[in-house]
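User: Fold this; tokens only.

Assistant: Input:
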Amino acid sequence: MNQQRIDATTLDPIAEMVEIIRRKTPTPNDHEIFSLHERCKVAFADYYGWRVGAPFSIDQLKRGTRSRRGGEKRVQVYDERHYDHVNYLRLPRSGKPTAFVTHSYRLVDDVEEAVRRDGLQIQWLAVSWYSPEGCNAGLVSL
């Protein structure tokens, strides 16, 4: 896998928000943290010309279609593939799935194995905006 990491912290305003998240002691239902997570994922999507969108399945991502077929499940949080705290990214005009960001507590090697098994690739981010000290974040795509 490509070991070069995308340094999302160089994207303003993500750097400032990640520092606030890093310094803050999280509490249950912390609306400030939730708002910062949301703003970071939108800023990241905007940088690539994408938009944050509704959940999709891995098969939808592979087919490049907006709708799920019967029995397909969205990329799951805490599933057997090790994709956690998923941010779904779509093309702006068509709404077709283009990639997702996972913020995983799992080991990098375990996540990379799951990504390969799913026929996808991952580019690791330098930091997770979900949990800067606790998660490995990666951009997963075809």
